[in-house]
Every structure is written in C-alpha cells, then in structure tokens.
Amino acid sequence: TGGVQEQFVLNDNIKHLTIAGGSSETFVYSIGVNETALSGIVTINGSVNGTDLNSGYITTDNTSEITDQFLVWRSATLSIYSITSENNSVSTGQNSLYVTMVVRNEGDATAGVYGAGLNFTAATGTVTGEYALQGMSNPLSIAGGMSETYIFSVAVGGGATAGRITIDGSVSGSDLNSGYGTTDESSIVTGGWTVQRKAVLSIISVRTD
Fold first, then answer.
1. Which end of the chain is more exposed for a tag (fewer CB within 10 A), N or C?
2. Nearest to 7 by CA among 57, 47, 44
3. Could you read off the pLDDT tens digit of each residue along the chain, which spans 209 residues?
C-alpha cells in the first residue's frame, strides 16, 4: 500500500472463482521484491471484486479488517575495504605473517559469509599458489551496515617469487533473507610487501696466519 505496488511482483498461487454464501476462501500469493524497492515497513492490504451470481450485482471490498506488514531491507552487499600487513619486507620461507582484511556489508540485511581469502600478484602475474593461508579470525556473518575483520596467518613458500607483491582479497556470501549471493573480488585499498630471498650464511674460507 502507500503507492509502492510497482515495487512488488505478485503471482497467484491459490485463487478461487466462487465463494459460497456464508463461507470463506483463502487466496495465496507469492511476492517478489524488486531490487530497487525502497527499504522500510510495508503494510499489506487487499482488494477483491466480484458479482452476485444470481443478480449480477457487483460487490467489492478495498480494505482488509486485519492487515499485515513486513520490513524491506536493502539486500546484503559485501565490499572489501582494506587489506593491511604488519610487514613491508618478508623472506622466502617465512611464516606467521599476519594480514588483515576488513569487509563491510553495504546493505541492510545480514550477510552470511562462507568464503574469504587472499590473492597475491607479482609483476609477472598471479603467484597465489606460492603462499599458504590459515584463517585466524573468520566471522560467519556481517550485520547490515557493519564491518568485520578477517585475519590470516600467511606462510611464504621457499621458492616464492622475489620482488614487490600486491595482496588483494576475495569474499563470498549470501543475503540471509533472500539467499541471493554476494561477492567481492577486489579490495578498495590493497596491501603488499617485498619478498626477498632468505638470508643464507656461507663460510667462504678459513685460513691461518
């Protein structure tokens, strides 16, 4: 009601062509909410039109004695805001490097999160396979309009590509009301570090005077 009918799509699941005198019938509808629907409380009312099958006189009712309501929320939308690392330089073979990823839900509905990870890129291309990740803090949901922090412990492979590495992220989830999926595969602010070959001491020579 209130002029927002165009924001909803109705399908007749159960309808009746006649109602006997003194009886009631139940009409059932499935409702689809448009993606552009305004958020807020929506009151559900009804209307019915028919005729007296004896006289042909028209009978109508444009309001229900008891109405109902539901709350429309903007669908959950996951967005990676930033990725940061405590280290600017790392060595091949190094582990327990902590990387933080902040994810925000831009919608109103709560988002369930079922996947979050990091991607690593060198000047030569993707090198994600050269790193091992262990999620340390992985929230399973993000309330509408809120942010959560995901913390990963990263191990650098012994043969990892040297040089400057960009750290990006990915997150996957769904709107817990509708079940529709939401993903983001790039952070607004990426992180990074410089990979150097690990220090290796080597005795070149030993001599006596």
1. C
2. 44
3. 456 777 788 777 778 889 898 899 888 888 887 777 777 788 888 889 999 999 999 999 988 888 888 877 788 999 999 999 999 999 999 999 999 999 999 999 999 999 999 999 999 999 999 999 987 878 999 999 999 999 999 999 999 999 999 999 999 999 999 899 999 999 999 999 999 998 788 888 888 87
| DSSP conformational letter for 129 | G
Contact predicate 79/102, CB 8 Å: no
Provide the residue type at 168 as one letter.
Answer: D
Q: Are 128 and 154 in contact (CB under 8 A)?
A: no
Residue appearing with tokens 């902590």: 98
**CB 110 within 8 Å of CB 142:** yes
Length of the chain measured in residues: 209
205, exposed or middle or buried, with CB in 10 Å at 0-12, 13-18, 19+?
A: exposed
